[in-house]
Amino acid sequence: MQEELLQFKRLDVWVFVPAPDNISPLMLKWLFKNKHDEEQTVIKNKSRLVVRGYRQEEGIDFKESFAPIARMEAIRIFLAYAAHKSFTVFQMDVKTAFLHGSLKEDVYVCQPKGFIDADHPSHVYKLKKALYGLKQAPRACRFEMLMMEEMTFFLGLQVNQSPCGIFINKSKYVLEILNKYGMESCDPVGTPIEIKDKPDLDHNGTLVDAMKYRSMIGALMYLTSSRPDIVHATCLCARYQAKPTKKHLKEVKRIFHYFWGTVNMSLWYMKDSGFELTGFSDADYAGCKDTFKSTFGGAQFLG
Q1: Number of domains observed in the structure of the chain
Q2: pLDDT tens digits, 190-234
Q3: Which pairs from 69-75 meet CB under 8 Å and 24+ separation?
Q4: CB contact at 8 A, 5 and 115
Q5: Domain extent at residue 172
Q6: Residue at 301 is within a domain
Q7: Are residues 200 and 257 in the same domain?
Q8: What's the pLDDT tens digit per position in 52-68?
Q9: What parts of the sequence cross the membrane (predicted)?
Q10: Same domain, yes or no, for 124 and 14?
Q11: Distances from the Cα of 227 to the Cαs of 97, 239, 268, 275, 282, in angstroms?
Q12: Spatial separation of the C-alpha atoms in residues 7 and 30, rounded to whole Å
C-alpha cells in the first residue's frame, strides 16, 4: 500500500486540496491480488488503489472512455504471422498503465482509507493523472514497459515456441475447471457431442441449477479461443441457459469428458508456413429440433 502511494507521489498523480463547494468526491477502494506465473506460483503481492467510478456521470465527470483492446483473434493472427516469419515472440510488462495519462476533466477523490491526514481530514485529492476505476482511464492511459522474457504465458494462454513452430493451448485452465466442477476423474470420450442426439428444449425435464450451468458454459466459451473443436457443441448447449435441465447438463458434462482425453491438444502454427487465408463453411438443413432452423458454421485458416 505504501509502495502504491509512493508511485502516486513519484508520478504526480494528484494534489491535496480543500474540498470544493457543491462537489461530491469519488470514493476510493483498496484491492489486493497475487500475481502468478504460468505455473501458478505467486511471484508478487500487489495492492491497487482504485476509484469507484460507477458514480461518474457522462458529460460531467468524463467524455471519452473508449480504449482499443486486443481480441484473442488478433493475438492468434499475430502468433501465426510470427511463426510464418520464424520470429521469436517476447513479452513486456506494463507498469502502472493508468497513472501516466493526464486528465482533461476536474475529478476529485476522497482520501484513501487508512491514510487520512490528521490535520486536514476533510481535504480531498484533485486528480492530475488517470486512476484505476475511472471511466476515462483506459482512453487516457500512457505507460512504461519493461522487457520480460520469451512469451510463454499470456492472458491464460500457454505459448510454447519451438524450432518447428508455435503451440498454444490452455491445458492448465482445462485442468482447473475439471477440478472446479468435480470432473477430474471422469472417463474420456472421443467427441464433444453425440452426433445423432442433439439437445432440445426438454420441456418436461428436471430443472438444474441455472447459475452453475451458465458458469460451465462461460468456462467453455473462454476455452473456444484455443479449442475450435468444442465451438459447435458449446454453442448448442448455450442455447438452453434460461431453463437448463438434467439432459442439458449431461450434454455439457460430455464436453468435459471430452476434455479429459484431450487436455494437451494445441493449436500449432508451423514455422516457415504460408500466410494465405483459407475459409470453409457449411450448414445443416432444419437441424434445430425446437425451431427447425438451419445452423451455419465456418472456419478461417491463416497460415
Answers
A1: 2
A2: 999 987 777 888 889 999 999 999 999 999 999 998 899 999 999
A3: 69/138, 72/155, 72/157, 72/225, 73/225, 75/154, 75/155, 75/157
A4: yes
A5: 158-272
A6: no
A7: yes
A8: 887 777 776 777 666 66
A9: none
A10: yes
A11: 31, 19, 11, 21, 19
A12: 15
